[in-house]
């Protein structure tokens, strides 16, 4: 119990830093794709430790406000101008909310995967392949950033269908409920199996097999629902 004030103080600092970074992006008039100062430079600017700055910036990465490019640096993300974003102060999701979120995705994503296999929009396909490769590496490294890469995979599949409205529906669900997605992966507990299911979806989309893509997406989400229910039941 004695540690709770420290935990709250750290969370508040992370939130304040995240907001300060967003203000910095806006003040400089930066646009998606523009480079941002390094994590070390920003930590010095705001007079905090690098790990503290990293935590704040990872939150913004999860929202798509920032983008980390391996070996290149930090860039302004595609969602920097969004008005509807996840609330970093929202309470930890309860078990019913997690299941409801997964059931909603189970109704939507199989159709998006089927459309993706039919259209295979080139830019989104490249994004999908990059997300899969990044997830494969993060699984091997047991990196906690895996959940972000997994979100990118699902968003890329939706975008590959070429329908911006449908992609935005899925995009909003996974971005606004980013913390819930992180909790789902934690409860799932089997990152290797989860990646294998993603790879099957990706292969079906890549091969242009709409029915297999739909089936693989439904099977994946149905499996996740079963696992989460068993964990929280």
Describe this structure in words.
This protein is mostly helical and 233 residues long. It has two domains: 4-76, Winged helix-like DNA-binding domain superfamily/Winged helix DNA-binding domain (Arc Repressor Mutant, subunit A), CATH 1.10.10; 95-232, GntR ligand-binding domain-like (Four Helix Bundle (Hemerythrin (Met), subunit A)). The protein is 72% helix and 4% strand. It is built from ten helices and three strands. The protein has helices spanning 4-28, 39-45, 50-62, 95-119, 122-141, 146-160, 164-176, 178-188, 191-206, 210-232, and strands at residues 35-36, 66-69, 73-76. The chain has a three-stranded antiparallel beta sheet with strand order 1-3-2. Strand 2 and strand 3 (73-76) form a beta hairpin. It is globular. Residues 1-8 have low confidence and may be disordered. InterPro entries: GntR_C (IPR011711), TF_FadR/GntR_C (IPR008920), Tscrpt_reg_HTH_GntR (IPR000524), WH-like_DNA-bd_sf (IPR036388), WH_DNA-bd_sf (IPR036390). Keywords: DNA-binding, Transcription, Transcription regulation. Pfam families: FCD, GntR. Residues 11-79 form the HTH gntR-type domain.
